[in-house]
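Internal tracking record. Fields below are filled automatically when a chain is submitted to the structure queue. Please do not edit lines marked as system-generated. If the sequence contains nonstandard residues, flag them in the REMARKS field before resubmitting.
Queue: standard
Priority: normal
Entity type: single polypeptide chain
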Amino acid sequence: MSGGRRHPPRAFGKRPLAAFAAGLLLSLCGPACRQPERPSSIRIGLHSGPVTLDPHAHNEVGTFSILRNVYDTLVVFDDQLQLQPLLADSWSNPDDTTWRFHLRSDAHFWNQTPVTSDHVVFSLERAMTRPDSLLASYLVEIESVTAAGPQEVIVKTRRPFPALLNKLAFIAILEEDPSAKTGSAAGSGPYRIESWRKGEPFSLEPVPGNWGSRKALHRLLVVPSGDPAERTEKLLRGELDIVQDIQPVDVERVNQHPEMKVVSVVSTVIEYLHLSASDPRFKDPRVREAIDLALDRQLLVREVTKGHGQVASQLVSPGVFGYDPSLGVPKRDLARARALLSSAGYPGGFALTLEYRAGRSGEEIARQLGELGIQLTLRSSSFSELFPRLVRGEVPFYLGGVTAPTVDASDIFDSFAHTRTGVYGRSNFNGYSNPILDELTQRVASERDMTARRKLLQETMRILVADRYHLPLLGRHDLYGIRKDIEWQPHLDRALSGWEMRWK
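SYSTEM-GENERATED OUTPUT FOLLOWS
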């Protein structure tokens, strides 16, 4: 048992006051309040597991959060989203289009093979050229990657590309191609995944003799569960040790448990509505504006987050480079929304299905749009089932979340909003296309003046918001339920850094 006190022996028949109080507490709050036994692993409850173990075949924050334990990158963001060296211990810019990286001499993969420049060249080229790579948009301006010796890599860009370091923080360096593997391929991180089946619990095993200061002390057991109430109950019963995405209604109950606490982190994820350009109704700008104006975002935040969130005016959060403070949150105007819908030929409204992953809530959106005359059918499903259909463009109306993982708004435009052409728009799943936005996005990539670059990003964001194919709603706080005898501070980017987790 952990967290208990030892008392000196007392005479038989005289019950210590502390013991009486502890017994009274248990009798009042039941089994959920009993101290959980300390397990051999740190057990983590998530809404879903990774969508893939191939680190180049996804652009999804939950998968990033797990695989960063397995694969390393040249540079990395710390817990305050500041860039730090990782596999590269130094870098320089000999000229505007050349980046020279020097690799650490002590970094190695699980099998003790040293990380060399050849592995970096292989990995960056793979991320850029594979047809199924969802990270190619991060590397749009790279012209070539070459090895200049075992520990030196030269990256040439077509034009100046000031955001390159930020983008490289998400490109995993591999020893070999993982396509044919059932587990994770060779990485240089402090953990490895022996075997994995989508949707099932799996473990991250510490790598013995891992290089550097990131020492994995504990095995991690990842338990996917799309039901947030079920995750919370498992936490309170002592069956899980860390739970991501505690529901706001459960915060007080978790905090009242003597062995548990809730840690709140302001999230960089923005929840939004995606309106597919393939749906003929959404092609009419009056319909999109009507839906936008029918939403009461302030009420949505109160009802959905219970005070653990804030309204969103755009698809990045404050603090992301390119955030535009001039963009205001639309005010609800139901009368104008009804008039717009009627003028578009839908005076009686129409029926829609709103899809989202388990753990999100569509009830308040359905109520508000119902007042406009749009009858919503709500469909909640596991993310492992939903994500492939989303990628294939099969989800016309979707409540999702988006983030700029490199803390630069260009992430949204390069991958999420640009027309799906070549390496651009790899995560554009609703068919949105605006040639002006595309042109601005490509201008941003080579702009070296930071003031001018910020203005370009803000101009691009205003176009995206005005087109209303992506309606920003709110930013939740990330709520974690954590055992009090675990020492760990959640990251702003939702990363699950297992080597930072410690039993007290």
